[in-house]
Design goal:
The chain is of the alpha/beta class and 180 residues long. It is 56% helix and 11% strand. It has a five-stranded mixed β-sheet with strand order 2-1-3-4-5, sandwiched between helices. GO terms for molecular function: DNA binding; DNA strand exchange activity.
Length: 180
Amino acid sequence: MNYGYIRPLADDKMNRHQRKELESVGGIQIVEEEHAGAKRRVALEGLLEAVQEGDRLYVFSLYVLADSTRHLLDIVRLLNEREAELHVLSSGIDTRPFSAYSFLTVLEELAQFQTEAISEKTKMGLLEAQKKGNNAGRPKKSPDAINEALEMYHTKRYSLEEIKEKTGISKSTLYRNLES
């Protein structure tokens, strides 16, 4: 079976351009998403459940199919597992068996690259913030306040609430420091 998938985009809200491109291929059952949002793509979910060995899925562009590299990778893996093909009209991507492995490999590498790039940018941002004196996370509790809280606890005359009220040291911080 040949399927085409379309969904509203900012510059093609009525799906006219996508529909025209898919109809030019011919012999395609078009599945249309009712809304543009990335959440709850009911039509796409139903289509992916229906895809079987030998089926072909046509889309105008990769962005019509997925909003992220990771989502695209999941869809391509599913199609690959079911021995179905993906055809992207705007870029000429075709995952027929002779080219599926290489496309899937490139996509996996791209997803890994994207993950690593985000992680590296985050680390660089944190290091830069530290250099400027902006430390991430909660400020450290004063050692004097912790020592006072520990002394109060060991006297057994104060409740945990009283210790917290007087020193600002929470129960979990107090217990963590008791263990060390």
